[in-house]
Design brief:
The protein contains 17 helices and 17 strands. With 380 residues, the chain is of the alpha/beta class. A 7-stranded mixed β-sheet has the order 2-17-8-1-7-5-6. A 4-stranded antiparallel β-sheet has the order 11-12-14-13. β5, α8 and β6 form a beta-alpha-beta unit. It starts with 14 loop residues before the first helix and ends with a strand.
Length: 380
């Protein structure tokens, strides 16, 4: 069963607007009813921490499990670049425009990977930051820019590779970047950044749980051990909070383990009429040749069966998957067809995406395991 994103009332896109309301930013609305009015707030985003998986492993995460259990939905697709766009801009994907892991950009013959800001499969280093300017690709002011304009000290504490990246410039710009090099350094740097002003907002990112889930699977002992590290990290940040601060822990998506794989690169019938295949295994953007969309939709639905939803772009938009509003320019980035898995299966590409095709854990679709993410609040 699919979970519909709760845009406007209970989604990841609503988190920072609610935090800004608590910090007293004019015009900001507490859409989530957080009622967090602390002068200093840290938001810890744990890549790959689904709410379902957290609830199933309380012994591995005693600190997080001790906090009131609230659940948000990510947006669609449930993938890191899209979720960071929703988080950092405070609007659904149909408005910020990062609509998938691999997406079409008119004027380019290859798909854009927003995580790397490069063209997928291009020879050499296809860094597009000067050609496809991130601030123009996503021009809406970020929540960090709004906070900084209201005299709030804003910092991002993240791995060095994220500093100045195309995705950071597109959806997380407007804050002081403070690189972290280790578990302890992250905790200490967050504590220091929270004390940087009379009011402060700190965003920090932890990615090892997602990596572990992809490689070993979210049901593996390795994943549970890494969840314990996440719990210790959150507890350590909480211990270092100033008296007038709050810690909010959330995630960008959950994850599932594939039980069945359909290989696009070795299944000729799936390739008929296709111009490009974007997205990822659990949620594909299918860009068809002119006039072929109806035939491709019938072929794909007939072959994939009830385990997959095969929607036209218009139907996916009308279903609210990308939010209540999708601008015409952003609609062009969405596939002519949008294909999402209902079960534990995915559409891989063994030739074009060999590493991703071998992964155990995947995400992208609208199942509960992928869509629901935790919201945990600790007040000092």
């Amino acid at each position: 069963m699919f979970v519909t994103p709760r845009y406007g009332t209970g989604s990841l896109a609503d988190l920072f607007p609610s935090v800004l309301a608590g910090l007293g930013v004019p015009g900001a609305c507490d859409r989530l009813g957080l009622e967090v009015t602390a002068a200093r707030v840290c938001v810890l985003l744990v890549d790959g921490l689904g709410a379902d998986a957290l609830a199933a492993n309380p012994a591995a995460a005693p600190f997080l499990s001790s906090l009131p259990p609230v659940t948000l939905t990510a947006g669609f697709p449930t993938t890191t670049a899209t979720s960071l766009g929703s988080l950092g801009v405070g609007v659904p994907p149909g408005e910020h425009g990062i609509v998938g892991y691999l997406l079409n950009v008119p004027g380019y013959d290859r798909l854009l990977n927003p995580l790397t800001w490069r063209l997928h499969g291009a020879e050499g280093k296809s860094d597009l930051r000067t050609e496809l300017v991130p601030e123009e690709f996503q021009p809406t002011p970020t929540v960090f820019e709004r906070a900084a304009d209201n005299d709030i000290a804003v910092a991002q504490v993240s791995p060095r590779y994220q500093e100045g990246s195309g995705l950071t410039r597109a959806v997380l710009r407007g804050c002081e970047f403070r690189p972290q090099v280790s578990f302890g350094d992250l905790v200490a740097t967050v504590a220091e950044a929270l004390r940087a002003g009379r009011r402060s907002l700190v965003y920090t990112y932890y990615g090892d749980l997602d990596l572990t889930g992809h490689v070993r699977g979210p049901s593996s002992p390795a994943w549970r051990c890494e969840l314990a590290n996440v719990d210790r990290l959150a507890a350590a940040i909480a211990e270092q909070l100033p008296p007038d601060a709050a810690l909010i822990v959330t995630a960008d998506h959950g994850m599932v383990e594939l039980a069945d794989r359909i290989d696009f690169d070795t299944t000729a019938v799936l390739r008929d009429g296709i111009r490009q295949l974007g997205g990822e295994a659990r949620a594909r953007h299918v860009y068809t040749r002119a006039g072929a969309a109806s035939d491709v939709a019938a072929t794909w639905q007939g072959m994939l069966g009830a385990d997959f939803a095969v929607l036209t772009r218009d139907d996916a938009v009308a279903s609210g998957w990308f939010g209540p509003r999708v601008t015409p320019a952003i609609a062009e980035r969405i596939g002519d067809l949008v294909v999402a898995s209902r079960a534990r299966n995915g559409i891989i590409r063994s030739g074009a995406e060999p590493l991703q095709s071998m992964l155990v854990g995947h995400h992208g679709s609208l199942t509960s395991a992928e869509m629901n993410v935790p919201l945990r609040v600790f007040r000092a």
